[in-house]
Design brief:
The chain is mainly alpha-helical. The N terminus and C terminus are likely disordered. Helix 3 runs parallel beside helix 9, helix 16 runs antiparallel to helix 22 and helix 17 packs antiparallel against helix 19.
């Protein structure tokens, strides 16, 4: 007898919650409208509403409101609703609280597709831009979900690793387009962080019907999504078409994300933060656990977060100063905080560590000697090619003359420029490979590397601070700042992850969150700096050896000379840590202390590698795996082989970047990302349960 009355009460409480959220969005929108660069405030707008005809700088207040402020506010609401609903759909079908348009690379795919269109100079209307963004986002989402594998896989850390890897690759390709097509992509760097600036109401008016249709479709799926939350088996037994429901939800989420990206650029992490906030509230307000109320609540919370982020940014910095800062910067910081908070609540499941490395065959000593010999010869050949190749191709005789100091002026200048660059690529590659080998072994995650863990992002932030602030001290100050912030990032990650022990999955996710946050701060500083410096700094952050000297190489060489013997001395501890949590204890190895020492060495190596080459991803992932496949699972052999292979990979990437489109250059970091991302994709697919490798 008590069941029937509970339904109306549940609907009433759910409707009340939605009404409160709607009122909050309206209030935030009204506050948002009162802010702007024209100086028109609350009282001026109030007088305008009551019929007063005032002007500011000769422009009627009515024109300012309808031409600038209302379009920005409605764009914020549309984007927030779209991303909030998209995030809710993705989290529901994956049953993963970290799933979102950003962590599943949907946003990166949509943005990349639009940048491709802009780079090749095709002018398209808004509806066509939406179709382009939809195609890019759909391909990216499909790839990520395919990599995650089974239903168990999409609910694990593996899903976020796949999304992060695909997003890194797409971001690298996008950065390459921004560098190579500067004229046709002018302004896309700032827009790429999300901007609510609008010319008029047309874009929001066109987006609104599409968002409304998808929202209605999502509400029609609400009951299916409720049942799907019980698990695939339960849903199938109750007659829910699981694949069709997932496909429709993902299509709706991608369409909403593409509309958002087309309207305001990739505003990050609203699709993560809004659903997480609503689901946490559902612990106290039970009706929000039903998708009929959860989906619209996520949309309203998304709109509220976007409006507040934009309004608070203007209130803190002032409207004029905030005009150059995209709204996506504060929202991305918010999303990074959400990832860290969720990671702190995580119990280490080890889902991402169904390791390819666990199936590595035992290799003989003679094989190790053969591999290290061949790798060293290949590295020597790569170094020689790097010295000879470029816009001016040289011969070995020219190199001999340069070494003797008798080379002609043109040849001497070319080699004086190339030699430090080749040396920088070699030492940076070796340092990144050493760091990656340590990280993969100590956290027992074959898909981890310094770039994903945020260490290199921290080091990059330190360098950006020095460059953008105009601080005195030159290269020594840059080196100190890069290493200092890299180590500080590691210390922060370790401190946050250390709760009942340094759990590998928690460490990994906190690193991803911190990496996102630090990258956003770097973007913030770049956008506030001299705009003429932005392409140069963006190139440096993409990983380049341009303009390097032997003074940049020296600190990395010193770190390698100290760190390599230290790691080799701890090779047996590293072997034991890479097995499981219990084996080190059985053999009397101080597990946590050893892990902390090794990760500190990795942090130093990863941080100092930024000095000669900037921020480079995937080397610390690819090189250790290649070494492990070639020489087995013993770290006494993996470490030297991985370092040689890392040096080889970066040397080849740097040489290709300098020669493929000479005299223009492709940063080595982008070349590495474009090569390393497919390898990561293959590796992740290979490590999926039930997939043969």
């Amino acid at each position: 007898m008590s069941r029937p009355p509970s339904q109306p009460r549940g609907r009433a409480s759910g409707s009340a919650v939605l009404a409160v959220l709607l009122a909050a969005v309206v209030s935030a929108g009204l506050w948002h409208v009162t802010q702007g660069t024209s100086g028109v405030g609350f009282w001026s707008l109030l007088r305008y509403l009551f019929g007063a005809h005032e002007t500011v700088g000769g422009v009627p207040i009515g024109d300012l409101v309808t031409g600038s402020r209302l379009p920005r506010m409605f764009a914020g609401i549309a984007v927030g609703v779209a991303l909030g609903v998209a995030g809710a759909l993705l989290q529901s079908v994956t049953r993963n609280a970290l799933a979102a348009p950003d962590t599943l690379a949907v946003t990166a795919g949509a943005y990349f597709a639009l940048c491709v269109v802009a780079a090749i100079g095709i002018g398209v209307p808004l509806w066509a831009s939406g179709a382009v963004a939809f195609g890019g986002g759909l391909v990216a989402a499909g790839l990520v979900l395919a990599l995650a594998g089974s239903a168990a896989g999409i609910g694990s850390t593996r899903l976020i690793l796949a999304g992060s890897a695909v997003a890194l690759a797409l971001d690298a390709a996008t950065a390459l387009l921004l560098i190579l097509f500067k004229e046709s992509t002018t302004g896309l760097f700032a827009w790429g962080s999300g901007s609510l600036a609008q010319l008029n109401l047309d874009a929001a008016e066109r987006a609104a019907p599409v968002i409304a249709v998808v929202l209605v479709a999502a509400l029609l799926l609400a009951r299916r999504l409720d049942v799907l939350g019980l698990g695939d088996d339960a849903a199938a037994s109750l007659g829910v078409p699981i694949r069709a429901t997932r496909a429709l939800a993902v299509l709706g989420a991608v369409l909403l994300t593409s509309i958002s990206v087309t309207l305001a650029g990739p505003i990050a992490f609203i699709g993560l933060a809004a659903p997480v906030a609503v689901r946490l509230a559902a612990n106290r307000i039970g009706v929000l656990g039903r998708h009929a109320f959860l989906i619209p609540a996520c949309g309203l919370v998304g709109a509220l977060l976007v409006l507040l982020a934009d309004a608070v940014l203007r209130a803190v910095l002032g409207a004029q100063a905030a005009a150059s800062i995209p709204t996506g910067i504060p929202t991305s910081l918010l999303g990074a905080i959400v990832i860290v908070v969720l990671a702190l609540r995580l119990r280490d499941a080890g889902a991402a560590r169904e390791a390819p490395q666990a199936h590595v065959a035992v290799r003989s000593r003679s094989r190790f000697l053969a591999v290290i010999s061949v790798s060293t010869v290949l590295l020597a050949a790569a170094i020689l090619t790097g010295l000879l190749a470029g816009s001016l191709w040289l011969r070995t005789g020219d190199l001999a003359q340069w070494l003797q100091g008798t080379a002609p002026n043109l040849i001497a200048r070319a080699l004086d420029d190339r030699a430090p660059r080749v040396a920088a690529a070699v030492v940076a590659g070796a340092a990144l490979a050493l760091a990656g080998t340590i990280v993969q072994g100590t956290v027992r995650n074959p898909l981890a590397e310094p770039g994903i863990l945020g260490i290199t992002a921290g080091a990059g932030l330190g360098a950006v601070i020095i460059v953008t602030s105009g601080a005195a001290g030159g290269r020594p100050a840059l080196i100190a700042a890069a290493v200092g912030t890299g180590l500080a990032t590691f210390a922060l990650i370790a401190l946050l992850a250390w709760r009942g022990g340094l759990l590998p999955d928690r460490f990994l996710l906190i690193g991803i969150g911190c990496g996102y946050a630090l990258s956003d701060i770097s973007t913030f500083l770049l956008l506030r700096a001299d705009p003429w410096d932005t392409p140069r700094i963006l190139t440096w952050l993409s990983g380049t050896t341009y303009g390097r000297t032997f003074a940049d190489v020296l600190p990395v060489a010193v770190v390698l000379l100290v760190a390599t013997p230290a790691v080799l001395a701890m090779r047996r501890r590293l072997d034991l840590l890479a097995i499981d949590e219990d084996t080190p204890r059985i053999f009397g190895v101080p597990r946590e202390r050893s892990r902390l020492i090794l990760l500190t060495i990795a942090a130093v190596a990863g941080a100092v590698s930024v000095v000669p080459i900037g921020v480079v991803s995937f080397v610390g992932l690819v090189a250790p795996h290649m070494a492990r496949a070639l020489v087995g699972a013993r770290h006494g052999r993996i470490v030297p082989v991985a370092m040689v292979l890392g040096a080889l990979l970066v040397s080849v990437a740097d040489t290709l970047g300098r020669t493929l489109i000479a005299p223009s250059q492709i940063p080595a970091g982008l070349m590495m990302a474009l090569v390393g991302a497919p390898y990561f994709v293959w590796l992740l697919r290979r490590s999926t349960p039930g997939t043969r490798g």
